[in-house]
């Protein structure tokens, strides 16, 4: 084992390393820490001042008396080095290899702010931040129950990132917990800086464009998922969390649906699902109709379509691809530029390019309307990763429509559905409760039911406690004069 003083000498190559001697009549101490990641106020007021005012304490007595909550004794040079790199202060007695390790980590980061991706009109305005301790505080505050379990792991050969798994022991199925612990523990990657890296590694099928874990920045959605029986995973330095297992319909459900009356929430949810289908199929149907199925066009629309395409030199598929790529270009440019500039580029670019394309006879007015509506419909997807999937899915449907018309759209749909049938999330079927069919769990899918109907947790989670509340009592409303 490398001698501890020699290991300290190695760390002194960094300019933020502080090495102090503290002497008193009873002992002589060596104190070291990295000032860039430690709280100097804690070191001066709680550690150095305490040592200087308690000169008669022996080393073991000093360890017991130091007013620091997180502390430990160690003589292992590797443990001491790792703790120093995490923001600990090391106090070593010169005559011994035993070292006191005190947690004085300095945590700096932004304060809790509003959600930027999952924005909502009603409901909580608290979003996760980059500090994992702050995020755990937000979760604990909303779930003050003793059965909430937090398991911490360290992932990354270089980054040593803190990864936390949260679940409610009385509810969550043990299989999902052990699956997450095993997959995260088996990660072989040097640097883990964001939760999305964990998500891509531990998903059941990393080659699928469909996300199999639900990413969120909302603390209330995390708490809702934990009470349903899901597992939450957080990474220090990432302002997002992932929930699993999930089903396909979760990605088209906004948590804000539960803040609205159930009828309004159900209508909005159905509009959202219809918009997603329109976004995927609209351009493909346009190509199929104009290429193979022109006889199916109504006589009322036929003159309009002919007039809009009479000067367009390209076949429908080229026309569609040009417009779709232009929309994606505008979307990507708007996302990468600063917010105010990005909004301007999106609005001005869309108007200018659309008008110029029609005037130059590169596309038709009819297609311009379809592509614009399709782009707007794709924005209704509440989960960003699934929104990206919807954007990509349009192109294979357009290709199949060009080759075989409506038959091609049908074949592409079969391929996508077959892929979805084979997907799983932490071992749970991706299309449940539709396949395998779970009639009792169909309640909260396309329709958002009233809360009195949510008396049982979804059956497919296989929770330890499937009952949320007594359904008989929930339907009884007692007035004050009864």
Mean pLDDT: 86
Cα radius of gyration in angstroms: 29 Å
Give me the number of helical elements: 16
Q: Which structural class should the secondary elements be placed in?
A: alpha+beta
| Separation, N- and C-terminal Cα atoms | 77 Å
Report the sheet-strand fraction. Answer: 5-15%
Question: How do the helices and strands follow one another from N- to C-terminus?
Answer: HEEHHEHEEHEEHHEHEEHHHHHHHEEH
Walkthrough of the structure:
Helices cover 44% and strands 13% of the residues. By secondary structure, it is of the alpha+beta class. It has four domains: 4-103, no CATH class; 132-246, no CATH class; 265-429, no CATH class; 439-474, no CATH class. The strands form three sheets. The protein has a five-stranded antiparallel sheet with strand order 1-2-4-5-3, sandwiched between helices. The chain has a five-stranded antiparallel sheet with strand order 6-7-9-10-8, sandwiched between helices. α5 (132-142) packs across α8 (219-228) and α11 (316-336) runs antiparallel to α14. Keywords: Membrane, Transmembrane, Transmembrane helix. Belongs to the GerABKA family. This is Spore germination protein.
């Amino acid at each position: 084992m490398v001698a501890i003083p020699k290991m300290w000498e190695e760390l002194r190559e960094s300019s933020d390393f502080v090495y102090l001697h503290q002497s008193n009549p009873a002992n002589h101490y060596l104190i070291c820490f990295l000032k860039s990641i430690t709280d100097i106020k804690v070191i001066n007021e709680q550690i150095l001042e305490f040592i200087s005012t308690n000169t008669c304490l022996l080393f073991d007595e000093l360890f017991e008396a130091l007013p620091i909550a997180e502390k430990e004794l160690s003589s292992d040079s590797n443990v001491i080095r790792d703790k120093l790199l995490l923001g600990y202060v090391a106090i070593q007695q010169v005559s011994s290899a035993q070292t006191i390790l005190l947690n004085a980590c300095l945590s700096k980061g932004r304060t809790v702010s509003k959600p930027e991706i999952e924005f909502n009109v009603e409901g909580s305005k608290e979003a996760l931040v980059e500090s994992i301790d702050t995020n755990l505080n937000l979760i604990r505050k909303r779930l003050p129950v003793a059965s909430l379990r937090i398991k911490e792991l360290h992932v990354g050969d270089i980054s040593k990132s803190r990864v936390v798994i949260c679940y409610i022991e009385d509810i969550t199925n043990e299989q999902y917990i052990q699956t997450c612990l095993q997959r995260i523990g088996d990660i072989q990657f040097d640097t883990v800086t964001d939760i999305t890296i964990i998500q891509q590694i531990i998903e059941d099928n990393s080659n699928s464009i469909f996300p199999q874990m639900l990413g969120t920045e909302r603390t209330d959605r995390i708490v809702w998922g934990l009470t349903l029986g899901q597992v939450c995973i957080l990474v220090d330095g990432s302002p997002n969390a992932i929930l699993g297992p999930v089903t396909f319909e979760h990605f088209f459900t906004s948590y804000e649906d539960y803040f609205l009356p159930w009828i309004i929430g159900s209508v909005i949810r159905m509009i959202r699902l219809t918009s997603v289908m329109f976004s995927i199929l609209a351009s493909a149907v346009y190509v199929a109709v104009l290429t193979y199925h022109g006889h199916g066009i109504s006589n009322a629309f036929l003159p309009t379509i002919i007039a809009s395409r009479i000067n367009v030199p390209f076949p429908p598929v080229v026309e569609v691809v040009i417009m779709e790529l232009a929309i994606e270009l505008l979307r990507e440019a708007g996302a990468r530029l600063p917010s105010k500039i990005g909004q301007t580029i999106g609005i001005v670019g869309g108007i200018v390019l659309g008008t110029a394309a029609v005037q130059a006879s590169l596309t038709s007015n009819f297609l311009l309307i379809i592509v614009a509506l399709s782009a707007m419909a794709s924005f209704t997807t509440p989960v960003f990763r699934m929104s990206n999937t919807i954007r990509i899915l349009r192109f294979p449907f357009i290709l199949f429509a060009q080759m075989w018309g409506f038959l091609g759209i049908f074949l592409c749909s079969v391929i996508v559905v077959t892929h979805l049938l084979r997907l799983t999330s932490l071992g749970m079927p991706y299309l449940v409760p539709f396949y395998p069919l779970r009639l009792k769990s169909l309640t909260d899918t396309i329709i958002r039911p009233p809360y009195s109907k949510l008396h049982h947790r979804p059956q497919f989670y296989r929770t330890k406690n499937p009952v949320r509340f007594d359904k008989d009592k929930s339907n009884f409303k007692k007035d004050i004069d009864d």
